[in-house]
Amino acid sequence: MDILYYLQTFDHFIIYLVASLLLFGLGTFLFKWLTPYSERDLIRAGNVAVSLKLLGKMAGLVVVLQSAIRSSINLIDLAIWALIAIVIQVVLHLIIEHVFTRKTNLAKEVEKGNVAVGLFLGGISILVGLIVAATISY
């Protein structure tokens, strides 16, 4: 094992880590910005449904970012694919949520603490993230 190799590439690890965390923060911010209620306040109040939904969104983003990291050939490639994937993830989540909200307002159900709805929407975000991640793997 050549420890010198790992020491020489450690800066790449740090750069990709910081870039990925910033992209994760951007994706999470977009999701929170589009949410009609304060997730932070509701989670502090003990709303498990909101926590599950947000956790699912974040997990879906991580899956997408993980795929972008593995598939990228450089930092610019990572940023481009991650941004595309984040936008696709957010748009698909909004579309799917709209499809399921034709007869009921799922956002209000989650806000009221409906754990089943929060878990369902969080799970949908993870599943969509897996699909999006698979499409950017080349």
Please outline the helices and strands.
Layout: H1 3-34, H2 39-44, H3 48-71, H4 75-100, H5 106-111, H6 115-135
Helix pairs in contact: 1-3, 1-4, 3-4, 3-6, 4-6
Structure commentary:
This protein is mainly α and 138 residues long. It has one domain. Helix content is 83%, strand content 0%. It is built from 6 helices and no strands. The protein is elongated and about 60 Å long. The relative contact order is 0.17. The model has no long low-confidence stretch (mean pLDDT 86).
Poorly predicted regions: none
Q: C-alpha Rg, in Å?
A: 17 Å
Helix content bin = over 70%
Class from helix and strand fractions: mainly alpha
Overall average residue pLDDT: 86
Can you tell me the overall shape? elongated
Summed up, the domain count is 1
Beta fraction? under 5%
Tell me the number of strands.
Answer: 0
Largest sheet: none
Straight-line distance between termini: 29 Å
Order of helices and strands: HHHHHH
Task: Give the count of helical stretches.
Answer: 6
Keywords: Cell membrane, Membrane, Transmembrane, Transmembrane helix
InterPro entries: DUF350 (IPR007140)
Transmembrane segments: 13-34, 46-69, 75-96, 117-136
Family: Belongs to the UPF0719 family.
